[in-house]
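Posting this for the archive.
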Amino acid sequence: HWTAPSPARAGATIPARAGLGAAIGLSGASLVVAIALLTKGAIFRGVQLNVLTLFISLIGAMCFAVKTELLLHGVVLRLMRDVRNPVPKIVVGGLASTAAIFFTAGATSFDWAIAFAWGAVCTAMWVTFEGAWEAWGAHTAFLFGSTSLFSGGLVDVRAQASTWGGGDRGVFGGGAALV
């Protein structure tokens, strides 16, 4: 369900629900960048603003998040709708995200761990908030922050070749992302 079926959540508006998720997702992306900067896994390269790039990136992140949330987490939860315990749902949601990148060229066990963790977080949001809007908002904001805001759209943060920084995989492919 995109919208919560329970009466307790019925009063929450869609923008408020997506906004809560976006705040969570952007906080997560900011935390990863902060950890990477503090551990010298990344360096700050400057500030720049390109509004058109940011706008196009936001639209792309929104579309990608819809696809990912529906296919990887929504389908899993729909198939597991009779399971009352949320833990198996969250684990299977994490595994679905891992499976999505499993055969990607160059994907490592570290990438799989990050995919599992992110999939589990998004699936937990579906379960906790009884719908997709918060998870979609978080996924959109995390993608937007990690691929645009912190990668040249607003500020330019470059990964270092270290455990925390991720090197060629970028800041969000390093140890800071797993924390």
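The longest strand covers residues 42-47. The beta strands are 42-47, 155-159.
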